[in-house]
Amino acid sequence: MRTGFFLLAAFVAVVSGSPAFRNLLVHEQRRDIPDGFVKSTPAPATKMLNLRIALTQGDMAGLEKALFDVSTPGSALYGQHLTKEEVEAFVAPSSESVSLVQQWLAANSITAQTISPAGDWLQFSIPVSQANTLLDADFTVFTHPETGTTLTRTLSYSIPAELIGHVDLVHPTITFDNPHANLPVVVSPKVVRPSSEEVPDLESRAVPSSCNTAVTPACLQAMYGIPTTLATQSSNTLGVSGFIEQFANQADLTTFLKSFRTDLSSATKFSLQTLDGGSNSQTASQAGIEANLDIQYTVGVASGVPTTFISVGENFKDGNLEGFLDIINALLAESNPPQVLTTSYGQNENTISAALANQLCNAYMQLGARGTSILFASGDGGVSGSQSGRCTTFLPTFPSGCPFMTSVGATTGITETAATFSSGGFSNVFARPSYQSSSVSTYLTALGSTNSGKFNTSGRAFPDVSAQGQNVQIVLEGSKESVAGTSCSSPIFASVIALLNDRLAAAGKSPLGFLNPFLYSAAGAAALNDITTGDNPGCNTNGFPAKTGWDPVTGLGTPNFAKLLTAVGL
């Protein structure tokens, strides 16, 4: 009897010591449905949901300090980027967090798999009926009549009280897709290339007048002093993100080089990397405007830099993030990720939950600490965000509001002025980082009361820099076309950084890595061409005006290669 009593007492102690997971607390909720979406019907009970849990990461404050230590000129650790293992040690969730979440899932007969290098993301699938109970949610079908998009989402969800501080978010729950993809627009067909006598002499920096209406690699070389000499360091690589089944066509690249870079071998190729079931069809009719643009203005501008097209398929592990997190996790899993990554896609910040935006931003922090420069197009809707005009207050884009990446706006013309579509503004999620505090404060003082109340004056400001984004010549299905968008600007600026990294590698120095502390330094800002005219209308306003110094249309300005070489110590 005594032995049985002690066994029973021990059993009761174990049970009573286990979390009950019954007290659910609201974890995330949104007050309104994103513009353009309509609430439809309750989601079918048997519909399967692929859910992801982001566990609270270990020491992101420590990683942020490490990132700035290796990225800030003048720091004793400048250029000493972290290893894969060092980054993962900062990010890995605590054993307590892992144990509690696994207990909660097991109590609900759920088995999850780890989908990130540091173990901070888990994935599992359950039907809507179980998800509604598990998360005290109301999963509903939402439609977007303009595009035909249909999503299953909830406007709020809860987690057990025991998991507060251990779970950052469950996804996809309150985050919506952005149906307006950030893609360039074909504006005029078959623009003729400038004749050979118009190709500029880099010493004189004369810019042909034709560059006002047809921007080519030769125009960029003249405007920005970008060298034509081949890169020499094979270890220095440039990554180009590809999404939504946009395929980069090798035959079109060959035609582009024959037309616009006759000094480069027309046989120059790019490498292919795939994930999430990605591919890169070479059928001429399936060539993508965006993918061709991105490849042609990296291979064709970053002369000789090994370039990889990273095609993300539609078997996403990150839900409606459509591979944005998957591509970063894939690169974080590599021992030697590319030194530069350019992406010409994005969405409005208000479509994504603050917790999820922070998770993605932290992923960019991790890759930046590894020594990768991450550049994104800022968007093409002016202060209306990403190609959307319905707004009363200004719409910042994501991920441009993340402080751990470099946002690229657009300019136009030989005498450069802001492109009217260039998205820029202030994040409603992320606070202004210290590296841009002085520059942004100066702008806001000069701006005065203009647009007062329409933007968050304390938010992270973007874009950071800019480059040509209008009348840019590409080849699509064998024909020359003209495109416009910040989608042009990001690969152009990324190519400049890749060429700087080539020179640094040749000198035995580290790549630039996370760019912003350098760009906003006195030396970095002085190496850029300040753009002081133009604005970015939207939301029934003229948007922000470009001014001397940083502005939320063109950032700090466009590149001057010679000055940048000096600024990086070469």
Task: Please give a handful of descriptors for the protein shown.
disordered N terminus, 15 helices, 21% strand, 4-stranded antiparallel β-sheet, 26 strands, Rossmann fold, alpha/beta, 8-stranded mixed β-sheet, 570 residues
Structure write-up:
The protein has 570 residues and is of the alpha/beta class. It has a domain at 185-193 and 217-567: Rossmann fold, CATH 3.40.50.200. The protein contains 15 helices and 26 strands. Strands 11, 12, 13, 14, 16, 18, 19 and 22 form an eight-stranded mixed beta sheet that branches. Strands 4-5-3-9 form a four-stranded antiparallel beta sheet, with helices on both faces. Helix 2 packs across helix 10, helix 7 (250-260) crosses helix 8 (289-299) and helix 8 runs parallel beside helix 12 (486-506). The protein is globular and about 75 Å long. Residues 1-16 and 188-204 have low confidence and may be disordered. Secreted tripeptidyl-peptidase which degrades proteins at acidic pHs and is involved in virulence. It catalyses: Release of an N-terminal tripeptide from a polypeptide. This is tripeptidyl-peptidase II. Residues 1-17 form the signal peptide.
Layout: helices, strands, pairs:
Elements: H1 2-17, E1 24-29, E2 38-42, E3 48-55, H2 60-71, H3 84-91, H4 95-107, E4 113-114, E5 121-127, H5 128-134, E6 140-144, E7 149-153, E8 156-160, E9 167-171, E10 185-189, H6 217-224, E11 238-242, H7 250-260, E12 271-275, H8 289-299, E13 307-312, H9 324-332, E14 340-343, E15 347-348, H10 354-369, E16 373-377, E17 397-398, E18 406-412, E19 417-418, E20 425-431, H11 437-447, E21 459-462, E22 465-468, E23 472-476, E24 479-484, H12 486-506, H13 516-519, H14 522-526, E25 528-529, E26 558-559, H15 561-567
Parallel strand pairs: 11-13, 11-14, 12-13, 14-16, 16-18, 18-22
Antiparallel strand pairs: 1-8, 2-6, 3-5, 3-9, 4-5, 6-7, 10-24, 15-17, 18-19, 20-21, 23-24, 25-26
